[in-house]
Design brief:
mainly alpha, 7 helices, globular
Length: 140
C-alpha cells in the first residue's frame, strides 16, 4: 500500500489550506488532461468519440459555431495556462514533476525510482503544497 500525502497539514505551515479546499483544487487539477484533449479537438474541429458538441457549447440563443468554439478554446487555454504558470512559479526546476503529480496523480515513489526526481520527498511535497496554496490564492 502506497503512502498518500495527508490532505491537511498543520495550520502553522505557511502553505496551509483547508482539507476541503485542497480536495476541490486537486479535483480541479485532475481535469487538466481533459482540457488539453478538448482544446486540441476544438483546434482540429473534430471532437473525440463520445463527446457531443452541443453538450459542451453553452446555448446562447444565437447560433454562431465559430464564436462558440473560440470561446471554449479560450476558456480551456486560460485554465491550462494558469496551471502551467503556477507549477512554474512553485518551482521551475521541479515543474514537470509537480505537474505530473497534480494532474495525473503520479506518486513520489514512481518519480523517484523511474523518473529520477532530483530532490528529496520532503522538498517535493513542500513544493507540491506550495502549488496548491498558490492555486488557492489565484482561484480565490
Amino acid at each position: 500500500m502506497g503512502t498518500d500525502i495527508r490532505p491537511e497539514i498543520s495550520k502553522n505551515s505557511k502553505y496551509w489550506i483547508s482539507r476541503h479546499r485542497f480536495y476541490e483544487l486537486k479535483h480541479y487539477c485532475l481535469q487538466y488532461p481533459e482540457w488539453k484533449k478538448l482544446y486540441s479537438a476544438l483546434e482540429e474541429k473534430s471532437l473525440p468519440k463520445g463527446v457531443c458538441y452541443e453538450c459542451i457549447v453553452q446555448q446562447s440563443g444565437l447560433s454562431n459555431p465559430t464564436a462558440d468554439i473560440g470561446s471554449l478554446r479560450a476558456e480551456y487555454s486560460k485554465k491550462i495556462d494558469m496551471i502551467d504558470l503556477i507549477v512554474n512559479t512553485a518551482d521551475p526546476e521541479l515543474a514537470s514533476y509537480i505537474l505530473k503529480a497534480v494532474t495525473e496523480e503520479v506518486p513520489f515513489i514512481y518519480m523517484e525510482t523511474v523518473l529520477h526526481i532530483p530532490c528529496s520527498r520532503d522538498t517535493f511535497y513542500e513544493r507540491y503544497r506550495k502549488f496548491f496554496w498558490l492555486l488557492s490564492s489565484v482561484r480565490g
